[in-house]
């Protein structure tokens, strides 16, 4: 399986040559395919075929069932036309865009300080960022409830400051998009920071010093030296976060269900309303949206010079 | 072996005797760019051949074609007595040492050296002995239990050689094995390699380098490469004393290359020819050696080694030409004098001079006819060649 | 270095400290605090207790912990095997189309929402020849699919970084491809292997979306039980269980990284 020859024969064997090289090459060619087939088949059976069934069911809809008159029947176009669906799609995109924007700003700022205004413990902080990436997302929702929730710590402090006139001066977390936004901001910012820190570590610090010695103020250095170098990483991290927030289930479902996004609605359709056709239709919409973003992400990642390891988790 | 036998062996396996290496018209192309062009070369069993050439000339590619890491687009490669063109690298049984050594970082020295033996399923009982022998030959026995990262550059290099020698190859391929070492260590390792080869007289070595000193010291023969082609091949002495091309003259040792016109040519007692040549159109002819007869009036390039030129005090010297000094460099134990003759720069290297000439002074450069070689010249290489 | 005056540096550090503490450190502190809280009526808990923690080791959460650990171990080991295989196959593949095929197929689960992965399994295995609905297999399968993509990505990145000189040296010494894979390539990939095992394990421990679709009452992972606790108003127990889960996950990650130290040669 391991190809020791680093490249295939670039030019075909000369007319006088024997058939040897060609045959050997063909053998190696088919060996590579032979080795690739089992994992592909495995994933195809476990994942691609089920995914195909989802698309199929979304398109076919569910026919009325004479044995069960209460069964919900839906077709793809029903689901698409439903104003409820439209609101949820709009919510999903909006939340993803706002969260990503917040993550980009905060992630860039924090990464900038870690990388270029170093302080003792900066390495430990960047370690912490790595560990953070492996935590489950709902953990954030659980804990910000204690902090900013209706009866949370911040509310108590605020209400004691206002002299107890309002019970809940800060009422944005439960059942509101702001709680989801804050949780997504916290959870996904490290996903932006990781590729940025990698990109920053590859930046020649001499450039910054030369720029400063030429009289550029920090703002100009950031805009004209750091930002152009960081742009690919920023794009890569941003589009990854855009995709992940669009697909996020844990944070939204833990917050409370008034503000719905596609993944939560899919779960709701399938598990509570047993409306599989509707769930499949929503799933197709969700997959198309996030695949489009993922394709963009892969293109950007491929362009990112040397930053290949800054992929999803690195 | 009788001549008939040799001929039969040759025809049957088309191999150079029992070992050695042979390239037959090997062409290698990367994505359509030819980087090795109809390369033919033979390394006899027990012979050391150095592949010498500038960067990018295709030396590594030639070596990797023998090892099996690049596949020739056409031509055949023979090694160790058989046609290996279609064999995968692991069936070729050649020892190879590359510039960065590629020692397995997760194995101790001993395990590194034993790797090839285990991979080839050599009988278990034999392995310790052969590992110990390879380590002894390279002087690495005391370090058998170390990891590669715990060794110095020179020690790592010895382990890489020991690892290649342990499989007892009939052919050893060395790709710039000394280039990662500093100058002092390099000359020590060079002597070491020469000693190793005396200890293993049957092993053929193909030694890639762009360092002419390494090539001259170690090699029985030198193959000079340029621009994907083999330019010239010969013993170190031949190439140095009687270069046949301007490129070889410029690349093997330093040389002054001057365009000359032949005035007359006559056979000499040693089988070569003596020619009288003019450097400028009007100047007095000087005597030089030529490998072939040349007609009067033909253009040639005269190759003069800087250290074989002498400053002559007066014009009455028989074989000398006049030049105007442009620069004098004092280099401690020696002097280097640059001078101009008919628009060409000529360099002279001499032991420290008591009375070095002044700049602008006119001096006479004297040389012996057997040290001056005529090369079929194009004159194109003069610009670079003349200043070397 | 970007800022040269002491004052500007201090401002930058203050900004960093503010956000870092508020957004990243405080949530963890609060979670731990809540895990030990009996009553929380004011700004700070009014009384503390260990009973949440002991509750976390009672039957229900303990069951969930066992389920989660088994699921995470099984699925991350399978994912590592399949992901490594696919990454090696990708490396051996010379055909451009073949490369693109492997990459697309194995990256797809990252792009597809986890809920949809669960839905797809539900749709495919609730009917037809293979009935898996309501089994633990379908939960493990969902986790496998999700984390295989990450294992594949990590391993193929590590393989690209691997110096081909090692494999070539092995081949020149007579090692056949499978021998050099076993003795040279995989040992050199060991740090990446343990690293992605750790990542897969952590991701599987925290997985919620796909599991919510396919779980059954006898195979309910810990995150789902935390969700249920939270939903029923047992926030402090939920916090305690979350804290216990994080501690155990971190302990496993630490254990896996210990394998690393022996394998880290360079
Ligand atoms: N894998 C490759 N793909 C494309 N071109 C290559 C590859 N390897 C080498 N080349 C090209 O082939 C030519 C010869 O390379 P080679 O490595 O043989 O040179 P070399 O004589 O060993 O040079 P050096 O002294 O610098 O090592 C170079 O022009 C190089 O750019
Ligand atoms: Mg080379």
What is this entry, summarized?
Chain B is built from ten helices and 20 strands.
Main traits of this protein?
heterotrimer, A: mainly alpha, MetI-like fold, globular, disordered C terminus, C: mainly alpha, 11 helices, binds adenosine-5'-triphosphate, binds magnesium ion
- Number of strand segments of chain A: 0
| Low-confidence sequence ranges of chain A | 1-24, 305-314
Helix fraction bin of chain A = over 70%
Shape of chain A: globular
Q: In angstroms, what separates the terminal alpha carbons of chain A?
A: 26 Å
Overall SS class of chain B: alpha+beta
- What is the CA-atom radius of gyration of chain A, in angstroms? 26 Å
Q: Going by CATH, what is the homologous superfamily of the domain at 96-259 in chain A?
A: MetI-like
Low-pLDDT ranges of chain B: 1-17, 380-388
Polypeptide structure, described:
- The complex is a heterotrimer of chains A (314), B (388) and C (266).
- Chain A is mainly α.
- Chain A has a domain at 96-259: MetI-like (MetI-like fold, Orthogonal Bundle), CATH 1.10.3720.10.
- Helix content of chain A is 70%, strand content 0%.
- Chain A has helices at residues 20-60, 76-81, 83-116, 122-132, 138-148, 153-161, 177-202, 205-213, 218-246, 250-255, 262-272, 276-303.
- Chain B is α+β, with helices and mostly antiparallel strands and 388 residues long.
- Chain B has 10 helices and 20 strands.
- In chain B, strands 6-7-8-3-9-10 form a 6-stranded mixed sheet, sandwiched between helices. Chain B has a 5-stranded antiparallel sheet with strand order 13-12-11-14-20. Chain B has a 5-stranded antiparallel sheet with strand order 15-19-16-17-18, with no helix packed on it.
- In chain B, strand 1 and strand 2 (33-43) form a beta hairpin.
- In chain B, helix 3 (109-119) packs across helix 4.
- Chain C has 2 domains: 6-48, no CATH class; 59-265, MetI-like fold (Orthogonal Bundle), CATH 1.10.3720.
- Chain C is built from 11 helices and 2 strands; from the N terminus they run αββαααααααααα.
- In chain C, a hairpin with a 7-residue loop joins strand 1 (37-39) and strand 2 (47-48).
- The longest helix of chain C has 34 residues, at 59-92.
- Chain C starts with 5 loop residues before the first helix and ends with a helix.
- Chains A and B meet through helix 1 of A and strand 1 of B.
- Bound molecules: adenosine-5'-triphosphate (ATP) and magnesium ion.
- Residues 59-60 of chain B line the site of magnesium ion (MG).
- Adenosine-5'-triphosphate binds at residues 30, 35, 53, 55-61, 210 of chain B.
